[in-house]
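[Q] Does anyone have a clean structure-token version of this?
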Amino acid sequence: MSIRRRDFITLLGSAAAAWPIAARAQQQAMPTIGVLMSTTLGPNAERMAAFHRGLKEGGFVEGTNLAVQYRWAEGHDERLPALAADLVRRKVKVIAGLDSTAAALAAKAATTTIPLIFSIGADPVKNHLVESLNRPGGNVTGVSVLSNELGPKRLGLLHDLLPNASTVAILVNPNNPNAEPDTKAVRNAAPSLGMTIKVLSARNEREIDGFFATLVRDHIPAFTISPDPLFTARREQIANLATYNEIVGMSNNRDAAHAGWLISYGSDNADALRQVGVYVSRVLKGEKPGDLPIILPTKFELVINIKTAKALGLAVPGDLLSIADEVIE
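[A] Here you go.
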């Protein structure tokens, strides 16, 4: 009996000693990915939730079988290269650039070996992120919602809303690599609509205030934007200033219309991040990013905020309402 007891105690001691080793081994086996973003979590909480839904679809849950290192540039894109380099030093398994072309480019410049999965609004071929849409090649793939390609379409919708407006502003962040091509596309589309375009810039919250001061001074009744994480993050500030100054604002995503902008036209940005999460999962399971085709949107949504229209004293044409995917009462 005493022998069995000693054997049991020895066995118990051996098992207890093995538990920390097993726990450490399990922790080491858990893959770590990096998330790189131009802004902060606050305005992107819904999109981050969508990203994690995509990861879950692929079988990965943060804290259970996946660790995540987050890096936020907090509106300062000049910080992105250093943040990307830090993720590379930490030897993450995948980097997800989730909210801007600048973040994707910084990650690509930082590594040619760690897989990069991005979500951007621009053409990734034109921005030299991938070789082609069907066969991206290298260590990069992702999702493009083509927000930057829709500038002329958004201008046309503004014309339908305000047919007598002769001048419309486009708000750009000059630090965004897409600012110049977006501006050119909108300017090229303006003459056929009988419009002229005034290009104005903002790099931060203070300059957004200055943007509206210029619109009021120059009696410009409406504006569109070159999509940028800054404008997404400051969508409520922009909505409040637009309504206060009785100016029509056109955005690229429905979040802005729900925040109080009059109108938005673009694809589903939250679903784009869900798809990034799915792609990250597939790469973690062994697929090569260069073999995964770029995902493009199949549906674009027109959202009109009637509450904002009433606040502006503006009657939205019936034919525009009839084609809207969502009308916010």
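[Q] Thanks! Anything notable?
[A] Confidence is low (pLDDT under 50) at residues 8-19, 21-27.
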